[in-house]
Amino acid sequence: MIIRPANANDRSNVIALWETVFPDDPPHNAPPKVFDTKLALHDDMLFVAVQEDAVIGTTMAGYDGHRGWLHKVAVLPLYQRQGIATALVRHAISALQSIGCTKVNLQIRPTNTEVRKFYEALGFDVEERLDMAKHIG
Predict the structure, then answer these.
(1) According to CATH, what is the number of the domain 2-121?
(2) What is the pTM of this model?
(3) For the chain, which residues make up each domain, given as ranges?
(4) Of 99, 6, 107, nearest to 57 (Cα)?
């Protein structure tokens, strides 16, 4: 398996992966829109895990100069529990560190206890915050 930045040729595979792993994402997180918008930034922070030319996992990172974020950590069900998500998260964190990031945040649903345990095993802590959002488009 290799981890590399995604490119336009990965579009259909990444969209299919996200639709499989995140079937209940809200419309504003529509996979085609998210993929196209991220690639348009040209920041090389959408990573794919590839095995035998197949996209089997993703993670997306971002940095605003204050803190980094992780999004869309996803692995196809057939490949889960093989260390791929861990490798993707570590790869993204390393990329963020290389551009000066000193703190990484992520969001998970409070009911997703299995994913919470995964991130805690990677050294993430729960920070009590009130998450707010405003949809503007």
Answers:
(1) 3.40.630.30
(2) 0.93
(3) 2-121
(4) 6
